Amino acid sequence: MKTLAAPLVALILVSACSRREPPAPPAAAPAPQAPVAAKPAPAPAVEDRYAPLMRAVFGSQYRSDKGDALAPMPDAHDPGTRSPLVLSGVQSTQLPSGETVLVVAGEQVDENGNADSSHGSPGYLSLYLLRQENDRWVVLRKHENIAELGSHGKVGRLSWVELGPGKTGLVAEHGMTGQGTTVMQLALFDPAAGKVADLTGDGIVYHYDDEGGCTEMRERCASSDAKWRLDAASPAQPYFDLVLDIESTERVAKPGAMEAGPKDGADDIERDERTTRTTARYGFVDSKYRLREGSNPMDSE
Description:
Protein name: Lipoprotein
Order of helices and strands: HHEEEEEEEEEEEEHEE
Number of domains: 2
Strand content: over 45%
Number of helices: 3
Structural class: mainly beta
Helix content: under 10%
């Protein structure tokens, strides 16, 4: 028994030492997580030099990402009602009184709140007077939708002038082209007036050109262009005279030219050309500028 027990014990020990624990199963992969949508970054603000003034006037209606405001404005064609416009600051200056005037141009708007102007759509002109108090802009007076100017929703080229002694004025050179004819007009405004309106009434024409529609079928074609100025040497009553130095060209078909048609591949028929120079002086009388001396041939075109 002793001789058998020793080998048996040794065999049991060897078997015990040779057993291995089975390897642990691999760890389960983590369950996939649903993707988290990234928050859209806020649209960057558009660089707008008039932003502080626009915010003072329109508050939360000013859109920093677009550099404009979307706000209801008085409807000149339907008194008592307001219609939304897209509004942009286009000019500003400080008046002799110390007040700052902000010029705002408005355009018609589509259903998405974007500017939507066609060829025949005017720009809508508004003026706001502000004063800075303790690093804050305060709106003093509003002159909204005082004029409809230009086309494509644009109010034209704006500039500041001296209307009279100590009187800062705004000039708008605006117009449109249609069927080959271009007409440009002057509009003048006194931002410090109690009621701001176009001092020219319905505008004074300083450029006329129908050459774009001048074909062999037209007997007469004309163009006129004026250099305008405010005459500081004139008595200010209360504004300086407006003077236009005008050069006009008229091209009239020669006798029989319309029947003969263009010659030798020319684009037009033979015409006689005549150039004239005139001066028109407008004075401010009875609330608007009226022709005082000379003539403006563009008034009859």
